[in-house]
Fold this protein.
Amino acid sequence: MEASTENLIKHLKDKGFNAELQSETGQVYFIFKEKEQEFPLFFRFFESGELLQMIAFFPIQMNSEVISDVSRLLHLLNKELDIPGFGLDEIGGVTFFRIMLDLKDNQIDETLLEKYINTARLACKTFGTTIEAVVVGATTVDEMIKKAQDTVKGMETK
């Protein structure tokens, strides 16, 4: 499909997403639900027309006291993933998952678009609870690592 805001909205609606244009930013977005949380997923064409950014924001506000721990967690997750994309905005106090889709000849590969949307949704579903626990200060990365190591040790002794 030709890369345009109108075509993207139509395609997403055809796939069952309630996509619309956000007038303030000029970006296409829809909201998806995972584990009782709502994640806005935004789409932005870069001016060169060669890339489409997809960015899902986690619906929790981060305060400055946890930024370094959240950053460390996101780094650990990105290190282990085939498609790393976790990031944070210190000024805005938000965490997100971002993927860039290459647009060849001003065309959006519809199959790849759907796979990337599913990847973003899966990342939010799989890691959302863990990220939220660190963002709200319920646990730290060190506590998570220790718990994981204790679990592995317990399995080795059986």
